[in-house]
Amino acid sequence: QVQLVESGGGLVQAGGSLRLSCAASGVIPRLNTMGWYRQAPGKQRELVASITSFGTTNYARSVKGRFTISRDNAKNTVWLQMNSLNPEDTAVYYCNLNFNSDFWGKGTLVTVSS
Questions:
Q1: How confident is the model at residue 100 (pLDDT cuts 50, 70, 90)?
Q2: What share of the chain is helix, strand, coil (3-state, %, to 5)?
Q3: Following DSSP, what letter does each residue of 45-89 receive, concatenated?
Q4: Could you tell me which of 104, 96, 88, 97 has the C-alpha nearest to residue 43?
């Protein structure tokens, strides 16, 4: 059974930084994609960033240049470094692991105050 555990959310002022972490456990193939999605109140869940086992990254246009995704394949861990945060980044952030199916963490709340 695959489990994802996120940490690192919280309250930060505009212009500040946060780092999210997600550790995956269970039987996980070496080839997979890990990523972060977010869902703001009243909005659909959207992709923030993803990274493959080979290190290929993909970012939403709204976060490119401000957020950086990275991973440790040996530890099945992914991080999201978020800089220059603004109130529009306020959302619940979900860790995602994909290999044939999607697996999700429970989410961690990020609140950016103006």
A1: confident
A2: 5, 60, 35
A3: -EEEEEEETT--EEE-TTTBTTEEEEEEGGGTEEEEEE-S--GGG
A4: 88
